Amino acid sequence: MANRAIKRNFRPKGDRITPSIQQSLRFLQHFLKSPQSVGSVVPSSPALVKALLTEIDWEASHVIAELGGGTGIVTRAINQLRVPASSFLCFEKNPKMRRDLAGQFPDVLLEADAFAIRDSLERHQLMSLDCVVCGLPLVNFPRGKREALLTEVHDLLRPGGVFVAFQYTRRLRPALVTTFDQLESRYIWRNLPPAYVFTCIKSPFRLCHF
Ligand SMILES: C[S@@+](CC[C@H](N)C(=O)[O-])C[C@H]1O[C@@H](n2cnc3c(N)ncnc32)[C@H](O)[C@@H]1O
Question: Does 40 reside within a domain?
Fold first, then answer.
């Protein structure tokens, strides 16, 4: 019920197609320096942020991770939606962006490399994750590396946990179908460029081996 109220009231700066000009310029600078790793010329639009976050049950999310924080457009929305007692780890590889995020979000646990997510959780003495929101340009990484990350995330999620990712192509879909137990996808036109949002659920049932 409370979660429905959160969703109803959640309006990330209207439904505009672009984020603020200042944020976009900063993002573009990072893209020009490191196009493969940043993966996009502008930050996600409010419409994409909304599509990423509306399916998550925030009341039931006590440990949250964001992979690829960038300039913080998704980070800010997660920080508004999460319950105050939750732990929120945001991974951002670029040191300059990470410093910037640390200044904007002093209550968020900032970490560098999303591929070291297990070590980070252990360092913070967190056992499992309730949800993971991913903005990494996964198709730009070697296949073995990105598939190992998906398996790691699946292992670290609690049963019933959610992994939500946006991507500009459908190339990740087969790996998501293989790794997770349920998958839904949506296409968000109101973003530059338009993007797929993949929502993946880890089965709530544990397999018992006799
Ligand atoms: C497409 S941008 C998404 C930024 C932001 N979440 C958004 O939606 O606008 C991808 C981000 O992932 C970061 N990134 C790339 N490789 C990473 C890694 N191994 N660990 C953490 N962040 C990484 C990039 O620096 C970049 O900021």
Answer: no
